[in-house]
Design a protein that fits this description.
binds zinc ion; Metallo-beta-lactamase, Chain A; 301 residues; alpha/beta; six-stranded mixed beta sheet
């Protein structure tokens, strides 16, 4: 018996289709939003909800996989408007007091902050529920389970619902039907071993379908997860090898870009599609994340 329906909502981030999704889940007793997208796409999200007959006030429960802006940037707005936000315990304090997040993102994005991400409003503390590994969220006639899945970020949950799961960023990116995987590995928390272990955990869950935030449902789950596992490994070792050769950051970004464009072209992607991937996941950010990881690893030895 089908007890839920999942709708993929396209936030048209920076005017591009199929870059950032949120998922609207319809249960027997209401609606749940998984991911909020950034503040900059809030009006688009509300318009998409209305197309499904859902008013903002109907959204009482919002679950986020992690607190990166493209996943949870609008969470504060939803909390201020009455929704309960369910978030990894490590991220909860940052949604309640977003000053630190705003300060660190402003260092990266500067005067592009507002255009890219919009407003990051503080969530009232009483509207934030901290999730730990295995915690169950039973709302709207649905039962979700939080699954600890670090690697892309330390504070990351996959949200399981029956035999499907919302995978945030840990199952990589695959934009719509395009035959290309990409992995977002931003600083400061990219962790190769943790990510591989999280993918093994997902592989062991026997999922029928997964919903990466970037973008849309994936059916061939174990083949997809195996390919992501391989790509995380190859990408990290590409960066490690270049660092060992003494390649400096800007050159490494250029070489990483050439490598990735080669993969994209081999997969038959158009220039337009390649651009979409870079809007969803700027390549320099993954290089920075992986360089930071290897520097930290080398300094520990
Ligand atoms: Zn992320």
């Amino acid at each position: 018996m089908m007890t839920h329906a999942i709708h993929t909502l396209d936030l048209h981030f920076q005017g591009e289709t199929e870059t950032i999704a949120t998922y609207l889940v319809q249960g027997t007793e209401g609606w749940v939003l998984v991911e909020t997208g950034p503040g900059s796409t809030l009006l688009t999200l509300q318009a998409q909800l209305r197309q499904h007959g859902v008013q903002p006030a109907d959204v009482q429960h919002v679950i986020v996989t992690h607190i990166h802006f493209d996943h949870a940037g609008a969470a504060g707005w939803w909390a201020q408007n009455g929704a309960t936000i369910y978030v990894h315990y490590f991220g909860a304090a940052h949604l309640i007091n977003p000053e630190k997040l705003i300060a660190s993102a402003t260092r990266i994005y500067g005067d592009q902050m507002e255009r890219l991400w919009g407003q990051l409003l503080p969530a009232p503390a009483e509207k934030v529920v901290s999730l730990h590994d295995g915690d169950v969220i039973a709302v709207a006639g649905l039962t979700f389970t939080a699954v600890e899945t670090p690697g892309h970020a330390r504070h990351h949950h996959v949200i399981k619902l029956g035999n499907v799961a919302f995978t945030g960023d840990v199952a990589g990116m695959k934009l719509g039907s395009r035959p290309l995987l990409d992995i977002p590995a931003p600083p400061p928390e990219f962790d190769l071993e943790a990510w591989q272990a999280s993918l093994d955990k997902l592989l062991g869950m026997g999922l029928e379908r997964i919903y990466p935030t970037h973008f849309g449902a994936v059916e061939n789950v174990s083949e997809h997860l195996q390919a992501v596992k391989m790509l995380v490994y190859e990408s990290a070792h590409f960066v490690q090898q270049k660092m060992a050769e003494g390649v400096a950051r800007d050159d490494l970004i250029a070489q990483y870009t050439v490598w990735n464009h080669g993969r994209a072209q081999a997969a038959g992607l158009s220039a337009e599609s390649i651009r979409k991937y870079e809007i969803a996941n700027p390549l320099y950010m993954s290089v920075d994340g992986m360089m930071r990881y290897w520097r930290k690893r080398n300094s520990e030895q």
